[in-house]
Amino acid sequence: MNILHLIDSGGLYGAETMLLNLMNCQKKIGYETTLGSIGKITDPQKAIEKKAYEEGLKVELFRMKNNLNLSEAIRIIKYAQNNKIDIIHCHGYKANIIIGLLSFNHRKIPYVCTLHGWTSTNKFTKLRIYEFIDIFMMKYANRVVAVSKAMLNDKRLINKNIDPVVIYNGIPVVEELNECNSIYWRNSNNDDVINIASIGRLSKEKGYDILIRSIYYIKTKYNYDIKLSIFGEGPEQYKLYKLTKELNVENNVVFKGYIPDAYKFLKIFDIFVLSSLTEGMPITLLEAMRIGIPIVATAVGGIPEALEHGKCGILVSPGCEIALANGIMRMYGDNSMKNMLSNESIKQFHQIFTVGKMEERYRTVYESSINEFKSL
To answer: Which residues neighbour 329 within 8 Å (Cβ) at sequence distance 6 or greater?
Structure first.
């Protein structure tokens, strides 16, 4: 099978990690697979392109003046036809919209799209408009894939009679973990200090302002010494820096910046925290589950499904720093619960969230899409 994966990537985040994992797995079983990287003419080499080259994956660049026009759709389809692509797999709204511009008869190649999760937190933004167009274009896809069952309840999909197939994200079973006890990573080796970590893009939907406020609450109300390490960068960075100073917790919150493969350091922390306001199926959560670090997370998107509705970690209401703080303290104060949740978390990961299981499910979707397309 020859697969063209299309994405307009803005960094190495969850969707990109999932895509590279899938491509590597497909390559190992003998499929031909190409990363079609969409971008503006002025874009330098993207992080996903660099990573793909490093991993020996084939990359094709589709740089364009306008990301959403018919001529670019035709160019991509001609490339796919000339290279005997069997199926196109779109990741993200820009790829889906571009390919959806062409009818089945003009395309002559089936395509599927994966809905990784919409991140807009405001109804009146350009991103929200693209999300609306994305939903409209999904009706032209041979299959729509959602990364969590929670997405099936989205009224926007229901209103358009779009019924996605659910395929959970997956990651490799074994990764080399850094045995690192450096104070730079952990911040403190004092057993009386709660050392927690979070990995993610510093953007509004990740709720890092809520997490920082929960640190303030623990420090002032519980009177505990707590250290939070945030691995990531993004547009909210300055605001979050400013918030730590306003709350006088700049010594309790450390911004590590973007660290490649930051999950390798999770083992040295006490608790992993996800404070998101909206999610699909976060890769960082799966990485935490894989090593069994105790998890406190907000009950949004696919997070409750991944954590078996509290069987594999503590779930709290989103957008509430008190709930988050109480969840952290509850986890920290109960060693038997920590061990139980961690063991269940590892078991859940191996049963559901490996890259091999994800590849098998996508293979079924590809094959059915190709067969149905041939019968049209």
So the answer is: 218, 222, 224
